[in-house]
Design a protein that fits this description.
heterotrimer; A alpha/beta (about 250); B alpha/beta (about 180); C alpha/beta (about 350); A: about 250 residues; alpha/beta; Rossmann fold; globular; B: alpha/beta; Pyruvate-ferredoxin Oxidoreductase, domain 3; 6 strands
Chain lengths: ~250, ~180, ~350
């Protein structure tokens, strides 16, 4: 019998506990596959966030630390400095990274920490039940913006790739989407590139996934992807912002 | 033996250094010592002061309310600390910057134009060494040899400054003894 | 032991931490502990260690969390308002069973307060300080020598119990200079032993199956039944620490004491001067100085209340915090009086002496 597809070694045997149609499982799998393919597994450790992916430390079959809300880049800094021979990634959602953890992500990026940050942006707080996120779109309704996000009152969504692109130190910054098989295949290449740079100790690498939240958006899996394509992609451009490897 | 001393002056006059050299010499001679500076916004320009204790027994309070000795490099320092000196204690002050002196006759008082002496030796920076010399000459709190040994490392690094320091300490020592 | 050097408390504790094998330090500047962070900035590169000036106190303690989760000796330091910010990380470390050393060079509070010495963080330090059921051992030095010695003790306790340990000093101990004798630097061999002591649970290099490990550093247990067991286990650890690690100093304590003074840290050394003067004048005053503020030496304080003691007087640089523990220890046997100073003001030996004399 020939095995043509199998579970990545970097994922544990646990079943994902994400909602039907959620793309966290896809993002987890891409990262795990890339770690396997790059042969980094025995030198890799990760940091899980607070949010829907809080249990990421159970799903990645490597040593993992669970951070306080928003602090993953600070933990990763401590971990990388403590074990410079190992590699570190963080996995964070939009509330974690772009609201409560803004200082930590900006300064880790600014120090050029040799870590990879995976940022899953679905424009909403999932775990706590669909509240407004720092990346919630203008006029988008959430449980804490029940009349739609009023940009005159609460401001515009934060574009994190663009924000980090204003810093000198980051080595690689790219936004990808997970809305179709083709986009997922493309995203895989980006994940591989970021982790390859991580392996080569090039510097700070950052990948943002434009994702969905069918449950809290009140849509089914397919509708949510269409909604994201129509509403998120015009605001959050899918493109490479920084690739010092290419420039060099 | 327990000697509690407060050195005070403008920030930049080197009062903290006076205290530091005195307790360092005390430590070398096997005494228990403590050095407690005033810190914070007073650090620059304002009145700086340091409390030092040199004692045969372990130092309890490093805070001094009624000092045995006060070194005042300016008038505000006399006004602030001079009247707390224990009866029979010692006030050493810089005549150049203390126009009013002190109105007490129950303490020993040594005054000298320390700023002028320092400039005469070659640098206003050695004012604190003049003061150290006077303290040692007057009190014998530590040996002058110990003090000279403690500045010996300067000999190679800054020979000119070293010579001036030695001169300043010796000059101060003479003043302290003579009066 | 090496020869004595004259050093500020802030620098002495930093040097002692490096000698104890600390090679990772993360912190944010704040008065009156700046000499500590500056010393680490100078010295860590010389011992091939890591110094990072973090973007905030919160980031610093979370860097400590990350490095500790990798099994290394790691330290942070701050002063009162900054320590308040670190409570998040300290609670998470306690929950995740992570070692680590935190130095608090206290200043006046609440809020921004001032930058002069105070002991107002006693409650925060001894009752956990962050959210949830936890304790951290709290070591309270009273001299620069003891401040330095506690660095090594704090790391040993932290590693032994896998728990954060707090050194509770204050601006006076941080800023004053006294002679210090240091322990020798850990040898390469000793450092290796320290580095390998936590490999069974920390983040560390991995292997392929069947020797692959999956260590989780975590304070989250979503299932109440599991969390219950986790917290009960923490509770047993705190009981063990309480049994094993109480430290205190008896000073002139004897069966004929008329008054018993209880004070810790800077306050205690001011009190000692007053006690010395009174005893030299023919009185008999005893003093107990708790060295661990948690676990608190309740029995030692109770035992020091001799048959002739008329009163126990507690001196603190706050509105009266440790006095509650002293009352628990004395348990109504004799009256407990309190004298405090706040705002970064210190009492003088004369004020202490007067207070004791009033009660003789």
């Amino acid at each position: 019998m020939q095995i043509i597809a199998t579970r990545p070694k970097t994922l544990t045997d646990l079943n994902f506990t994400y909602c039907p149609g959620c793309l966290h499982g896809v993002a987890h799998r891409l990262i795990a596959e890339a770690i396997d393919e790059l042969g980094m597994r025995n030198q890799m450790m990760g940091v899980a966030p607070v949010g829907c992916s809080v249990f990421a430390y159970k799903f990645f079959n490597i040593d993992m630390q669970e951070a306080a809300h928003g602090r993953a880049p600070a933990l990763a800094t401590g971990m990388k400095r403590a074990r410079p021979d190992m590699h570190v990634f963080t996995y964070q959602g939009d509330g974690d990274l772009a609201a409560i953890g803004t200082a930590e992500i900006v300064h880790a990026a600014n120090r050029g920490e040799h870590i990879t940050v995976f940022f899953v942006n679905n424009a909403i707080y999932g775990m706590t039940g669909g509240q407004m996120a720092p990346t919630t779109l203008p006029n988008m309704k959430t449980t804490t913006s029940p009349y739609g996000r009023d940009v005159d009152d609460i401001g515009y969504p934060i574009r994190v790739c663009e924000l980090l692109d204003s810093l000198v130190a980051p080595y690689f910054i790219e936004r990808v989407s997970l809305l179709s098989p083709a986009e997922i295949m493309k995203a895989k290449k980006t994940v591989l590139k970021a982790l390859q740079y991580n392996k080569e100790e090039r510097g700070f690498t950052f990948v943002e996934f434009v994702s969905t939240c069918p449950t809290n958006w009140g849509l089914d899996a397919l509708e949510s992807r269409n909604w994201a394509r129509e509403n998120m992609l015009p605001f959050f451009n899918v493109k490479n912002y920084r690739d010092k490897g290419k420039e060099a | 033996m327990k000697s509690e001393m407060i050195c005070a002056g403008f920030g930049g006059q080197g009062v903290l250094t006076i205290g530091k050299f005195m307790v360092k010499a005390g430590m070398v001679e096997g005494k228990n010592v403590s050095w407690l500076p005033s810190y914070g916004p007073e650090m620059r320009g304002g009145t700086a002061n340091v409390s030092t204790v040199i004692s045969d027994k372990p130092v309890g309070s490093p805070i001094i309310s009624y000092p045995d000795i006060v070194i005042a490099l300016n008038q505000p320092s006399i006004d602030k600390f001079g009247y707390n000196i224990k009866a029979g204690g010692l006030l050493i002050y810089n005549e150049d910057m203390c126009p009013n002196g002190i109105d007490r006759d129950d303490i020993d008082i040594v005054k000298a134009p320390m700023s002028s002496i320092a400039i005469e030796i070659g640098s206003a920076r050695v004012l604190n060494m003049v003061a150290i010399g006077i303290i040692i000459g007057r009190t014998g709190l530590v040996k002058i040899e110990t003090m000279l040994d403690s500045i010996a490392p300067l000999k190679k690094k800054a020979p000119e400054l070293y010579e001036m320091n030695v001169l300043a300490i010796e000059k101060g020592f003479e003043i302290g003894k003579k009066l | 032991m090496s020869e004595k050097v004259l050093m500020k408390g802030n620098e002495a504790v930093a040097e002692a931490a490096i000698r104890a094998g600390c090679r990772l330090y993360f912190a944010y500047p704040i008065t009156p502990q700046s000499e500590l962070i500056e010393y680490m900035a100078r010295m860590m590169p010389k011992v091939k260690g890591t110094f990072v000036q973090a973007e905030s106190e919160i980031a610093a303690i979370n860097m400590v969390y990350g490095a500790s989760g990798c099994g290394k000796r790691v330290m942070t330091s701050s002063s009162s308002p900054g320590i308040a910010l670190k409570q998040e990380g300290i609670s998470y470390m306690a929950g995740a069973n992570l070692p680590g050393v935190i130095v608090n060079v206290q200043r006046g509070g609440p809020g921004l307060g001032d930058i002069q010495p105070a002991q107002g963080d006693y409650f925060q330090a001894t009752r956990g300080g962050g959210n949830g059921d936890y304790y951290t051992p709290v070591l309270a030095p009273s001299t620069v020598q003891e401040f330095a010695d506690m660095a090594s003790l704090a790391f040993d306790l932290a590693d032994k119990y896998r728990n954060p340990v707090l050194i509770l000093a204050d601006g006076l101990l941080g800023q004053m200079m006294e002679p210090v004798e240091f322990q020798p630097y850990k040898t390469e061999e000793e450092l290796k032993v320290l580095d390998n002591q936590h490999l069974d649970w920390c983040c560390c290099p991995n292997e392929d199956e069947p020797n692959h490990h999956h260590h989780e550093i975590n304070s989250l247990e979503i299932d109440p039944v599991v969390l219950e067991q986790h917290v009960l286990k923490l509770g047993r650890k705190y009981e063990e620490i309480t049994r094993n690690e109480q430290r205190w100093e008896d000073y002139d304590v004897n069966a004929d004491n008329e008054i018993l003074v209880v004070a810790f840290g800077t306050a205690s050394r001011i009190c000692k001067s007053a006690v010395d003067d009174l005893n030299a004048a023919g009185h008999n005053i005893g003093l107990v100085r708790p060295i661990t503020l948690w676990p608190y030496p309740y029995d030692a304080v109770a035992k020091a209340v001799g048959p002739k003691v008329k009163k126990v007087i507690v001196f603190e640089l706050n509105l009266g915090q440790m006095v509650q523990d002293v009352k628990l220890a004395v348990n109504g046997k004799v009256p407990v009086e309190f004298m405090g100073k706040v705002g970064g003001i210190l009492f003088t030996p004369e004020e202490v002496l007067t207070k004791i004399r009033e009660n003789l």
